[in-house]
Prior knowledge:
Helices cover 53% and strands 10% of the residues. The strands form two sheets. The protein has a five-stranded parallel sheet, with helices on both faces. Strands 7-8-9-6-10 form a five-stranded parallel sheet, sandwiched between helices. It has helices at residues 7-10, 24-27, 31-41, 61-68, 85-96, 112-117, 121-132, 134-148, 161-186, 193-203, 223-234, 247-251, 255-270, 285-292, 306-313, 350-361, 372-382, 386-396, 402-414, 418-429, 433-446, 451-460, 465-474, 476-481, and strands at 16-21, 46-48, 70-77, 102-107, 153-154, 211-216, 240-244, 296-300, 325-330, 341-344. The chain is built from 24 helices and ten strands. β3 (70-77), α5 (85-96) and β4 form a beta-alpha-beta unit. The chain is an alpha/beta fold.
Amino acid sequence: MAAAASCSDIIPREKYDVFLSFRGEDTRNAFTSHLYAALCQEKILTYKDDEELERGDDISPALLKAISESKLSVIIFSKDYASSTWCLDELVHILRCRGEQFVIPIFYGVDPSHVRKQSGSYADAFVKHEERFKDKVLRWRNALTTAANISGFDSQTIRPESDLVKIVVNDILAKLNRKLQIARGLEDLVGIEKQIQQVELLLCLDSLDVQTVGIWGMGGIGKTTIADVLFHRLSFEFEARCFIKHVREASETKHGPLYDLRNELFRTLLKKEDICITTPSIGSTFMRERLRRTKALIVLDDVSEFSQLEFFAGGDFNLFGPGSRILVTTRNKRIFRNGDKIYEVKELDVDEALELFYSRAFRNISPPDDYTTFAKEVVDYAGGNPLALKILGSVFSYCRYKDDWEGELDKLKKFPEKKIQNALRLSYDGLGENEKEIFLDIACCHKGKHIDEAKRILNACGFFANAGVVCLKIVSAEMRAEGLVVE
């Protein structure tokens, strides 16, 4: 059946800015018409189905196509929305496309809890549906619950109606503008989208639990890039959002900077500029209560110690409201607790690495055939690290002749690029003295040896090899970049 097709199966390109899903008898000549007129006035291309009567039980392929070709869908939940099987099928397909588009629910004259729990008039509608559409009822119920948990607008709290229309239109404009920025931002990224999708799956956005997801990997691998794209892509599904950068750097200075970052977090989430907490604990019970009522999206970028996580949340990430998500980027896997969700950012494969390197070294122009071997050597040296590939691409972009390439390659093998070394060195600097000594011994004396033999020698030299090697395995992504892992 057409309604079962996924969004990616149908969508050829984005044709509409907005798709309006509504129950015609409830709102066609009232709120929906006012919203549609306001969108048209802002030159927002909007699809509004003007068929007065529903024909048949299944949603039409043309309507499915219109949903799939839209950048954003607005669902206007009204009293009798659930009585329409077309509306319910539209809703199911809209949620299938949620990864490709924004979704905004509007609760018009209906309590959001009635939609979420299928109570009130929604319960009455499902009594009838149970008799004729047993195979669809569970799917419809799940869709209603999911949609009602997305941050939206309630006509009972935003009055008069003209204000509601204005607020919704402004929100749509902001989201469409953000979507355009995201699309442009991804144009220069290679091999990142599939990793973004994996992290998004770990976030379990439909769950009301407060969840923390770690993004872990070597320096320059793309942790911050993934977090940044997800932050912009998902931020409008949350009541409040905040991206905190340079946590490690702030923690290495004296008292002020880390406290400043925490104050920035709370000011942004609560939209209150006079918040200034100078004590290790949060203290204010009222502030905690307000935060617990706020569905927030938080990114803590470049966290190096568990104590930093404790500091920002007062030791309890349940400080934030139901459905909140905290993304943490780090090079140190040890900051996470058992049971935390962690995504290890993968290196680019050979084809992706070549594509990224070519884009910098040859300005997106494919290299001459006799340069391919040189390019593959550079890519092999970079080990699939995006930052290294970008830096090296810029270096080699100034090499005009084959002799220049050969000379630059020979130099790299003896004198590694300083910017790459600086990015990778941070993980080494974070090791304890025992682990640093073991790391250097492995790199200089034991590379290629069996791990048991290397540990025996290290123990004989007075090191604590078992504990040290466990720690080094956790940061082994850093060593892989320099070919320093003992297998």
